[in-house]
Design a protein that fits this description.
This protein is of the alpha+beta class and 166 residues long. The chain is built from 3 helices and 4 strands. A 4-stranded antiparallel β-sheet has the order 1-2-3-4, with helices on one face. Helix 1 runs antiparallel to helix 2. It starts with 31 loop residues before the first helix and ends in an 11-residue tail after the last strand.
């Protein structure tokens, strides 16, 4: 197969190029699927190590034990980090606009993660509704419980005068 025919593609549920309408971010709880796979393979490797170890079995060695331990740890981490994404971007924008204390015009939401267990957090950038915006703010909203974790509001320091019509 020529190199020109080999293409890398996004999974269908992540490809938004042909999508019309509001985009829904995939739930992070999907991490449970690979977690179960890792744990099943770890159990299989451990069972093979238990039942086939010793000098009479040359194909099963200490490596099966260590692979089982590593896969079990990775699987447990995936289970621990599989937070449900209960708060969608529109809910996060509502929580953020209620916190900043001004009428919101333009806004942007970005999903990020925080902590060792990768808890989802929405990062919301907000501008006031005046033209040009007089205030701006950033708000962090928890993606599991819709709790506002952090907010910062300031007067907009950007100079928009060159964009005004004359």
């Amino acid at each position: 197969m020529p190199d020109e025919e080999i293409r890398d593609e996004l999974p269908e549920d992540l490809d938004i190029s042909g999508y019309v309408g509001q985009y829904t971010f995939p739930d992070i709880a999907r991490r449970r699927i690979p977690a179960v796979i890792y744990l099943v393979v770890a159990a299989g490797c451990f069972l093979l190590w238990i039942t086939h170890r010793g000098p009479g079995h040359v194909l099963v060695n200490q490596g099966f034990f260590w692979v089982a331990v590593a896969l079990a740890l990775i699987g447990l981490y995936h289970l621990a980090a599989a937070w449900p994404l209960n708060v969608r971007e529109t809910d996060a924008l509502v929580a953020a606009s209620g916190r900043v204390g001004f009428a919101v015009g333009h806004a942007s939401a970005q999903l990020g993660w925080t902590g060792l267990r990768s808890r989802p957090v929405w990062r919301i950038l907000l501008y006031s509704s005046e033209e040009p915006p007089q205030k701006r703010g950033v708000v962090l909203v928890d993606g599991v419980e819709a709790e506002v974790l952090f907010d910062f509001v300031e007067d907009n320091p950007e100079d928009w005068s060159i964009l005004r019509r004359r």
